Amino acid sequence: xxxxxxxxxxxxxxxxxxxxxxxxxxxxxxxxxxxxxxxxxxxxxxxxxxxxxxxxxxxxxxxxxxxxxxxxxxxxxxxxxxxxxxxxxxxxxxxxxxxxxxxxxxxxxxxxxxxxxxxxxxxxxxxxxxxxxxxxxxxxxxxxxxxxxxxxxxxxxxxxxxxxxxxxxxxxxxxxxxxxxxxxxxxxxxxxxxxxxxxxxxxxxxxxxxxxxxxxxxxxxxxxxxxxxxxxxxxxxxxxxxxxxxxxxxxxxxxxxxxxxxxxxxxxxxxxxxxxxxxxxxxxxxxxxxxxxxxxxxxxxxxxxxxxxxxxxxxxxxxxxxxxxxxxxxxxxxxxxxxxxxxxxxxxxxxxxxxxxxxxxxxxxxxxxxxxxxxxxxxxxxxxxxxxxxxxxxxxxxxxxxxxxxxxxxxxxxxxxxxxxxxxxxxxxxxxxxxxxxxxxxxxxxxxxxxxxxxxxxxxxxxxxxxxxxxxxxxxxxxxxxxxxxxxxxxxxxxxxxxxxxxxxxxxxxxxxxxxxxxxxxxxxxxxxxxxxxxxxxxxxxxxxxxxxxxxxxxxxxxxxxxxxxxxxxxxxxx
Length: 575
Fold this sequence. Notes:
single chain; alpha/beta; eight-stranded antiparallel beta sheet; seven-stranded mixed beta sheet; 21% strand
C-alpha cells in the first residue's frame, strides 16, 4: 500500500521552504557569516596554535571544531524551523565549542598558572597594558614592578648607578619566575663574593655571581622597597612586598635578611601562603584501596584527642605544609587550636598563631609552657630548638591535648631518637607519644615528556616491586614534534614539574612505647615492618610504580650518604 502523499508534506515542505527563504534573503547569509567568521578566526589563529604549543591532541581538537561547525551549519540550512530560532542555536553551538576548549585547556596541568586564559576584563586590561608598557620601555630592559609599604617603587634613571642595581634584581626575579622557582637566595660564598641561587622543585640552581659591593647594593635596594631598616645588617628582618611583570597582577614575596660574620644573606620567597595551601589528600600520602593506608593511619591519629605526634623532615621538605594541613583538619571554631612559630608562612583561619621573637628576652620554652598551660586542645610547635622545649611538650595532657612537634630529621627513627635525647628521659618521652610522620619531597615527572619503559624481572625484584608491573617511567625533557626532537615546553627540558611528598606514617602503641623507652631502635624498626607500614623508600617506590616520579629521584632523595650515617649517632636510628 503506497503512503499518502499528503503525509510527506510536513517533512519536506518546511525544509525546502526554510532553505528557499534563507537563499532569498540577502541579510540572512550575512548573519550566518557574522557568527562563523569570528569562530573560524579564533579556531585557526588562536586555538590551533595553542594546541600545538601545549602538545594537546591537535588533530582530535580540529576534528571536533569541524564537527561543531557542521552541526551549526546544518541547524541553519536544514532544520525546519524559523531562521530566528535556528540562527541563535547555531551561534550557541559555536560558542559552546569554543568554551569547551577554553575550559579543558585551562584545567590542564600542562598549562602553567601564568599562561592560564581569563575572561576577567581587569586582568585582560592589565595584560594589554603590560604589552604596551613592554614596548614603550623595551629600551630600558625593565620588566618587573615592585610594590612595598610605600607603594610602587619608582624606576631609577637609566644613566644612574641605581638603574644597574635595579636591573640586576629585575633579571634575577624574572629568571626565578621563568624557571618556576619559589625562592631566590643571595648569600656570601667562600671566596668573599656573593652567589644568587634559585630553589626550583627542591633543587638549588646557581643563578649568578656578584662582588660584595654589587650584592650589598642589591640587598639594600630591596630592603628599602620593603620598608626595612637598611642600616641594620645584623638582625633578622622580614617584610612582604608584591612583585610581578609590568602591568600584570602582582604576587606576594616574603623578603628576609639576616647578618652573619660572613656577610648579609637575603631570601626572596614567592607566594609564601600558596606554598602551604595543600590539603592532606594532596600531599602524597598513599590511600590504597585494600588494607590500611597511610591516609587511614593519619585519620586514626586525628581521631585520637591527645598525645604527641612528631613531624619530621629535613629543611625545605614540607614540614610546615604538613603541619598546617593537619591543623586545618581540626575545627578551630569549636576547639582551642594554637601554634608557636618563628616564621609563620600563612594565616590559619580560627587558629591563634603565637609568633616567637628570637631577639626578645623570652625563652622559646617559656612561651611554649605558657601556651600549654592555657589548656588548648591542639598545639602546633614549628620547632624544638632546645631541650627545655622538648621537656615542655611531654608535660601536655596526653588525654586531651594534641601536640604536633616538628623536628628536623631524615626519617622516622632518627626523629624519635632526637626527640628522646632532647627530653633526656626515654620513659617520659615515650609516655605521651602517639605517632610519627616523616617525609621528603621528590620531584614529579613531567607528564608531557616522561618516557615509559618495561622493567626487567631483575629490576623489579631488586626494587621490591610487584612482578606484574608492566611499565615504569623515566625523565626525558624532550618531545617529538613532526619527527623532530625538541625541548619540552612544559618543564623547559628539566624532565620534572612540581613536587610530591613521600611519607612514612607510624602509630606508637604500647609495644612501640616500650621499645622507645628502652631505646631499642632495631626492635622498633621491626615492629613497623611487621605492621606493613612503609618506609620512606617503600613509599617512594609506590610513587615510581604509579608514574609520579623516577627511580633515580627516589635514590637521590632517600639514599643516606655515608656522612649522614656517620653523624647520626645511631646506626639503627639512621636506617
